[in-house]
């Protein structure tokens, strides 16, 4: 019996159906991965026509293989410039650590661009999660998340207004909210519950994050609470699946 060496980074017989016939686009995708390794990060990929001629495949197969590699985060498209070899994905820990701290640990400069900062009445679902009455006022903060100046996500945070009456006096929207809550307002992060799922961004979200509407996104829902168990924030974070991945460490008490 022969075949490719086993790898922990890909599924067994990746892309090969049980009948053994490998789709043309997938065979090309494998060859493009070799080309990507040769070109190196930031290099421009040859044009669709050039790849079609080089590998003797249809342009439709080239288009599908490249689209797959974009979704995998191996290639990046730049409007009006072409397609380029992407760098490695950023990694965020699923832990009580802020977005800012997570990126700085990787040597990446975090940033945020303010979209919305307003007071709103909580609907029934939000009120239930934050243990407040429906209609009670919350602060809504929406920001585009940046990594070395690149848009990588969109974060929407709801905080109980009564708990933080001075928030807008001390908070700088371009900075770390967690650092402000901890250092300026004395919040102790005792725990959080986080749920992760995949979604397609809405047209508005895709526009803000700068991605095509069909690009899969990673969606995180998070509720954080203080030592007495009282929740104080509800966060909805949308991240580009081609630029970020998430990691956590498991143990017997997880």
Automatic annotation (TrEMBL):
<dbReference type="InterPro" id="IPR011663">
    <property type="entry name" value="UTRA"/>
</dbReference>
<dbReference type="InterPro" id="IPR036390">
    <property type="entry name" value="WH_DNA-bd_sf"/>
</dbReference>
<keyword id="KW-0805">Transcription regulation</keyword>
<dbReference type="InterPro" id="IPR000524">
    <property type="entry name" value="Tscrpt_reg_HTH_GntR"/>
</dbReference>
<keyword id="KW-0238">DNA-binding</keyword>
<dbReference type="InterPro" id="IPR036388">
    <property type="entry name" value="WH-like_DNA-bd_sf"/>
</dbReference>
<dbReference type="InterPro" id="IPR050679">
    <property type="entry name" value="Bact_HTH_transcr_reg"/>
</dbReference>
<dbReference type="InterPro" id="IPR028978">
    <property type="entry name" value="Chorismate_lyase_/UTRA_dom_sf"/>
</dbReference>
<feature type="domain" description="HTH gntR-type">
    <location>
        <begin position="20"/>
        <end position="88"/>
    </location>
</feature>
<protein>
    <submittedName>
        <fullName>GntR family transcriptional regulator</fullName>
    </submittedName>
</protein>
<dbReference type="Pfam" id="PF00392">
    <property type="entry name" value="GntR"/>
</dbReference>
<keyword id="KW-0804">Transcription</keyword>
<dbReference type="Pfam" id="PF07702">
    <property type="entry name" value="UTRA"/>
</dbReference>
